[in-house]
């Protein structure tokens, strides 16, 4: 999604080609359980132990994200992700266009919603892509931490407040 087509149009076009049934999604999840980056479980545990709320904001699909959130102990209400819609027989109907992450600028909108609802003094966004970086704007995240442990995106890293390659770096800073 290079930016020439609005995110929501590109998402709809891709899903209409693939048409994932509920059975296909469940089969995929069964065959490919979530794999987490080293150190993320420990980081989330430490944040939660320090009474710091953790949210998962993704342009991916809630059906794929929920197992990750479950492993990390992130409550369902702290997940912002696209939601695939299925009919009674499990057939693909589309996606929930009301999710902020279903549109361009959606991660920034999700952060704004969180901020308005919870009145946090400081918010940080950790991510690896341009849509994560977009969340660092007035009314959004106060700090953007670029995680380059899977893939370094130079343009994103150049604009980050902090660049990390391992979650241990963040863990150590919390001590």
Automatic annotation (TrEMBL):
A single GO BP: L-serine biosynthetic process
rRNA processing as UniProt keyword: no
Entry's Gene Ontology molecular function annotations: L-phosphoserine phosphatase activity; magnesium ion binding
Required co-factors: Mg(2+)
Gene3D superfamilies assigned: HAD superfamily/HAD-like (3.40.50.1000)
Recorded metabolic or biological pathway in which this protein acts: Amino-acid biosynthesis; L-serine biosynthesis; L-serine from 3-phospho-D-glycerate: step 3/3
Pfam families named among the record's database cross-references: HAD (PF12710)
Superkingdom of origin organism: Eukaryota
GO CC annotation: chloroplast
EC number: 3.1.3.3
Swiss-Prot/TrEMBL keywords: Amino-acid biosynthesis, Hydrolase, Magnesium, Metal-binding, Serine biosynthesis
NCBIfam families cross-referenced by the UniProt entry: HAD-SF-IB
Name listed for the protein in its UniProt record: phosphoserine phosphatase
Source organism (scientific name): Capsella rubella
């Amino acid at each position: 999604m290079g930016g020439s087509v609005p995110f929501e149009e590109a998402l709809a076009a891709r899903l209409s080609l693939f048409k994932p049934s509920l059975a296909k999604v469940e089969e995929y999840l069964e065959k490919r359980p979530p794999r987490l980056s080293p150190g993320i479980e420990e980081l989330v545990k430490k944040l939660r132990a320090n009474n710091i709320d953790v949210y998962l904001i993704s342009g991916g699909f809630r059906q794929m994200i929920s197992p990750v959130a479950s492993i990390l102990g992130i409550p369902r209400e702290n997940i912002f992700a696209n939601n695939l819609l299925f009919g009674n027989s499990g057939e693909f109907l589309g996606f929930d266009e009301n999710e902020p992450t279903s549109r361009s600028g959606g991660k920034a909108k999700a952060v704004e919603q969180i901020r308005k609802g919870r009145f946090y003094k400081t918010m940080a966004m950790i991510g690896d892509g341009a849509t994560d970086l977009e969340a660092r704007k007035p009314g959004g995240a106060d700090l953007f931490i670029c995680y380059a442990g899977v893939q370094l995106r130079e343009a994103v890293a150049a604009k980050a407040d902090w660049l990390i390659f391992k979650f241990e770096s963040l863990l150590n800073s919390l001590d």
